[in-house]
Specification:
- The protein is an alpha+beta fold.
- The chain has a single domain, classed as Creatinase/methionine aminopeptidase superfamily (Creatine Amidinohydrolase, Alpha-Beta Complex).
- The chain is built from 4 helices and 15 strands.
- Strands 1, 2, 4 and 5 form a 4-stranded antiparallel beta sheet that branches. It has a 3-stranded antiparallel beta sheet with strand order 3-12-11, with no helix packed on it.
- Helix 1 crosses helix 2 and helix 3 packs antiparallel against helix 4.
- The protein is globular and about 45 Å long.
- The relative contact order is 0.20.
Length: 253
């Protein structure tokens, strides 16, 4: 069942989104060779605590960390670790912020030091695909219009779209209806109506779209060892068009 949010509830989620976006802006200043994703995870937990918020995924189904930190061929749900990041790595930091009981979810992929041209193009295409999906998020369109906009662009650029993980509704719970695949046919799926709030979070691979799971039962990685990137926003469907609740241009400093 899709839980429609009121304007007031969307405003409360937007406050959580502003805080989350401000965390990502701080992380962007920290990313460099030599820092560890464990240090970033500790920073995030303390930052949220100072702002009277919590990391919602910590403790979710036994997950132990405030963030997911996915490096290079890791698609998503990578564990923060103490090994330092290296020049040329890419790392996706994903988190869910709980502020006053309302959630926001956003992932961003960062280049570490000097990354290859291919890696940079992967990041650029993945980010653009996210915003192309958001453009389709208007009242009267369908989920498939979002999915198709992402897939058609990404595949035309020579990359592949992960099938095993999708966007999702969000509110007081991390995962609500509807599911939002990043591949599919236009004109199909749930019709978008005012008050829906969900994430769009394309995970894009340089090579094949398939994945394999690590022994920790959380971390997904590419089956061919090639790079993967992810960008994610939480958005609300309104009569005036989609609102990006985790917009980094509208965040706290």
């Amino acid at each position: 069942m899709i839980i429609i949010k009121t304007e007031q509830e969307i405003e409360m989620m937007k406050e959580a989104g502003k805080l989350l976006a401000s965390v990502h802006k701080e992380i962007a200043k920290m990313i460099r060779p030599g820092i560890s994703t464990y240090e970033i995870d500790q920073f995030v937990e303390e930052y949220l605590k100072k702002h009277n918020a919590t990391a919602e995924q910590k403790g979710y189904m036994g997950y132990e960390y405030a963030t997911c930190a996915s490096i290079n061929d890791e698609i998503c749900h990578g564990f923060p670790r103490r090994e330092p990041l290296k020049d040329g790595d890419i790392v996706g930091i994903d988190m869910v912020v709980n502020l006053d009981g309302w959630l926001a979810d956003s992932a961003w992929t960062y280049g570490v030091g000097n990354i290859s041209q291919e890696a940079q193009r992967l990041l650029d295409v993945t980010k653009k695909s996210l915003y192309l999906g958001i453009e389709q998020s208007v009242i009267g369109n369908r989920i498939g219009d979002i999915s198709h906009a992402i897939q058609s662009y990404v595949e035309a650029e020579g990359f592949s779209v992960v099938r095993d993980f999708v966007g999702h509704g969000i509110g007081k719970n991390i995962h609500e209806d509807p599911q939002v695949p990043h591949f599919g046919r236009p004109g199909r799926g749930q019709r978008l109506i005012e008050g829906m709030v969900f994430t769009i979070e394309p995970m894009i691979n340089i090579g094949e779209y398939g994945c394999t799971m690590d022994d920790n039962k959380w971390t997904a990685r590419t089956i061919d060892g090639q790079l993967s990137a992810q960008y994610e926003h939480t958005i609300a469907i309104t009569k005036d068009g989609p609102i990006i609740l985790t917009d980094q241009e509208d965040s706290q400093e």
